[in-house]
Amino acid sequence: MVDLKKGAAIVGIHEHVTRYAPDKSELQIQGESVIKALEDAGLAKKDVEGLFTASSSVRNSGMNLADYLNLYPKYVDNTTVGGGSFEFHLSHALTAIAAGRINCAVITYSSLARSGGVSVGTGGVARFGHPRLDPSPDSFEELYGLTTVGLYAMIAQRHMHLYGTTSEQLAEIAVAIRKHASMNPEAMFRDPITVDMVVNARVISSPLHLLDCCLISDGGGAVVVASPELARNCKQRPVWVLGVGEAIAHQGAGRRDLIYIAAKQSHEPAFAMAGVTHQDIDMAMIYDSFTITVLETLEDLGFCKKGEGGDFVSGGRLQIGGELPINTDGGGLSSNHPGMRGIFLLLEATRQLRHQFEGTPRQVENCQVALCHGTGGALGSRHSGGTVILGRD
Amino acid sequence: MADWNKPLPTISGETKPYWDSARRGQLMIQKCDSCAEYQFYPRGICANCWSNDIKWHQASGKGTVWTFTVTYQNRTPGFAEDVPYVLALVELEEGVRMFTNIVECEPRDVKIGMAVEVTFVQANDQISIPYFKPAG
């Protein structure tokens, strides 16, 4: 295989910081984000050759985005595998750039889930309107009242049963991430919380409580990816793509053990490509749709053994200053979650690798290598996992 | 029956035997004659070896709760009024797992590993839906 390590770099980023934008359209948020991310890179509209986007709203496809921005991309990818789509996009952009098809790609996302009143986690099938169910798998699942949170809660229940994991341990994840949100002026929820507050909040779907669940916001962002040659001439120090890996995990015709998630498959090629070990990872951006998502992801990425996640996430290990700081922007649990949060993992990892917060408590000290893992879909039925390892020169 | 307000299945050629049998109170699952693996949900190929040698078998209807969640919030009509209800994955004796609700018991009494058996609820003239209840 062609060596893809450092075959492309993130050279521009922008987070559309709005958490509530009833006056904006999704395309407008994407457009504004793309323009700002290109400015950040020191690039222009004419440089954009690849266009990557995903949306939970079908109308907002790559075609509409190209039209809105009046772009004529020669490489288009609308891979849509839930919230982790953008880790897949970076993986694909790397491949397209390394193959010489394009020199520059933009990845962008937006959603108005909050102002649109979308019950992302608890809407059940009705959040898609009142669809005629597909013959399979929907007709064997949606009859029983599936919710997104419920499909994660089932895996949390199984984890507790097998390994003795506790609600208090899951709460440690929410507490650490809220602490990080308190350092992010853009985060939606910034007041500190305690383990007691998490475990005493109302149960949404047992064993997950309200504060085990991500919030719902509006928002969006964009990432500019460039070839090594182009990257070295950009305004910002390049953040190199060191390794990528992808996986889809599903029920395996009713036989697969769902306690193992897609991260188990996706992380191995990413680490191998990057040539790094777990000890080299200075910080991680772990998709935190729910606290259990983080615990399961850390286990299956190999940061600890299966079943030991409860101990691993405890004792401040995940906080800045701890052994493996995660979600230093406040994550989906406390900062923003417009429905598909994967792009924000790339944005914050890039900020940390640029040492953008130097001199403030939010900066992970001497951050050289960061890992992002996006999870999309649901652990209890089927989901995607995209692992990306990024590094600074 | 007329007021069934939950989602109903859409039936295709490959899943029709399942729903025809459900209407008669039988839980049918598929087994491959080539590789001898059971599978769920039913489909037109064997998901394991990709052969077409699929045969329908009546399942014993007995199984255990593999995992579950007590759902307290779901905005979908039909379920919104039903909370709290138990969403579960049941592992059938034949080894495959399926989504269901655990019914005819208190949500707080449901445990992983508990023995359950199938029971059918008629949604309309054409469709009955399999649920599971504590084994009697």
Give a structural overview.
The complex is a heterodimer of chains A (393) and B (136). Chain A is built from twelve helices and eleven strands. Chain A has helices at residues 26-41, 62-69, 85-98, 148-163, 167-181, 195-200, 228-231, 263-274, 291-300, 309-312, 331-335, 342-353; strands at 9-16, 50-53, 75-77, 104-112, 203-205, 208-209, 218-226, 239-249, 283-286, 369-377, 383-392. In chain A, strands 3-2-4-7-1-8-11-10-9 form a nine-stranded mixed β-sheet, with helices on both faces. A two-stranded antiparallel ribbon of chain A has the order 5-6. In chain A, β5 and β6 (208-209) form a beta hairpin. The longest helix of chain A is centred in the N-terminal third of the chain and has 16 residues, at 26-41. Chain A is globular and about 55 Å long. The two termini of chain A are 23 Å apart. With 136 residues, chain B is mainly beta. The longest helix of chain B is centred in the N-terminal third of the chain and has 8 residues, at 16-23. Chain B starts with 15 loop residues before the first helix and ends with a strand. At the A-B interface, α4 and β5 of A face β2, β4, β5 and β6 of B.
Layout of helices and strands:
The complex is a heterodimer of chains A (393) and B (136).
Chain A: E1 9-16, H1 26-41, E2 50-53, H2 62-69, E3 75-77, H3 85-98, E4 104-112, H4 148-163, H5 167-181, H6 195-200, E5 203-205, E6 208-209, E7 218-226, H7 228-231, E8 239-249, H8 263-274, E9 283-286, H9 291-300, H10 309-312, H11 331-335, H12 342-353, E10 369-377, E11 383-392
Parallel strand pairs in A: 2-3, 2-4, 9-10
Antiparallel strand pairs in A: 1-7, 1-8, 4-7, 5-6, 8-11, 10-11
Helix pairs in contact in A: 1-2, 5-9, 8-9
Chain B: H1 16-23, E1 28-32, E2 38-39, E3 54-58, E4 62-71, E5 85-92, E6 97-102, E7 115-122, E8 128-134
Antiparallel strand pairs in B: 1-2, 1-3, 4-5, 4-7, 5-6, 7-8
